[in-house]
Amino acid sequence: MNVPHVTVRHLPPGPWRSPLRGPWLTSVFGLVLLVGIPLVFVTGLLSYAAYNPDLAPINDKTPGKGLFGFYLFSWPTDPYWLYRLTQGVHVTLGIVLVPVLLAKLWSVVPRLYTLPPVRSVAQALERLSLLLLVGGALFEFVTGLLNVQLDYVFPGSFYPLHFYGAWVFFFAVVAHVAQRLPRVVRALRSREFRAELRTNTAGTRPEAPDDTGLVSSRPAEPTMSRRGALGMVGLGSLALLVVTAGQSIGGSLRRTALLAPHGRNPGSGPNGFPINKTAALLHVRPQDLGENWRLVVNGNSRRVTLSLADVRRLPQHRSALPIACVEGWSTEDQHWEGVRLRDLARLVGFHGDPPGVFVESVQLSGPFRAVALRDNQVRDPRSLLALRVNGAVLSRDHGFPARVIVPGAPGVMNTKWVRQLSFGATTFGPRS
């Protein structure tokens, strides 16, 4: 029986005639992403673990994750800068990789237009994995950038969208690497990297045609060398590093953080450090923070109500801790003063190792109005119900009259405008 011959066509003339395109350049960009993307993925998973989502439903912004939560563990309080580091790396590296990702997509555009689109079952599966790879990459990077710069702009919660999108993208990366790694190795060995860096535009030649469909059959004259292309992408990544990293590193570099979502100049004075959400934005009413404010502390069988004056009369302690946000920015160590959480647990009958605590704010709207903290977080002597920072009373936007500060916890877990603390796991409520 005669089997019909299928002719495979690619699409150069037109826009796909760059003599730079080919397996070597594509493999160089892919190698950078192969190092960077797993690091972004792992630090993203660590960010999710820092919320202690398996502790209580109030912390779990991605319910029903099932096996995808296999790695979750009790988030530690030491080192106290852990979340500042992991989330700073996650956001900064994700932004820095954007030019590399765009360059990689540019380099493989001809493959997306191979005709016919499906030639066999194996090729259909390959194109499906490519679709998930490209779509997953664009979804994760775009949603991540929008969340950092514009806050919550998605239909539904950002957390499950980004979480499940990350797993789809990662599986697509693994499948793609498994398929393409031998070709990548061959392509990287086909040209010497240092030789390409010494080759100018006049000396740039197209790669030899192969079955990848990346090399044009009618290449145009070069207007840039591969050295120039790599340099342009590298310079773009370096520029993004310069205007982003300062929001996590702090110090004098904070002034260079042009992409910091909450500005580089949060004000002066003791309360002059970045704020994620203001009291006005979260509809915190002045009357809830005035003379009638009371702190309610619950135990298993005891309840204590304290005025601000009562809280101030309790033993005061100091901690030097940063605020680190999921958006990637963080502060230097701020000097907090207040009552230890474990001392408040002792007030309601927990004289040994205290249990976890359910923390509630007076805020009327917005996420994280309440959070659950683990017992190791309560036990840490640096964990405070803070009344003062850097020698001054907390400002209204920083949580006056009292806020929680816990070493190593994401900023949103350091609840502001606290009105109630309930110690003991039974106060966390049933999982919904």
UniProtKB/TrEMBL annotation:
UniProt keywords, alphabetically: Membrane, Transmembrane, Transmembrane helix
Transmembrane regions listed in the UniProt entry: 24-51, 89-109, 130-150, 162-181, 228-246
Origin superkingdom: Bacteria
Xref: Gene3D superfamilies: Oxidoreductase, molybdopterin-binding domain
Key word Transmembrane present: yes
Pfam families named among the record's database cross-references: Oxidored_molyb
InterPro entries per UniProt: Di-haem_cyt_TM, Mopterin_OxRdtase_euk, OxRdtase_Mopterin-bd_dom, OxRdtase_Mopterin-bd_sf
Keyword flag ATP-binding: no
Region (Disordered): 199-221
Domain Oxidoreductase molybdopterin-binding stretches: 290-424
Cited PANTHER family: BLL0505 PROTEIN, PROTEIN-METHIONINE-SULFOXIDE REDUCTASE
Protein name: Molybdopterin-dependent oxidoreductase
Native organism: Streptomyces polygonati
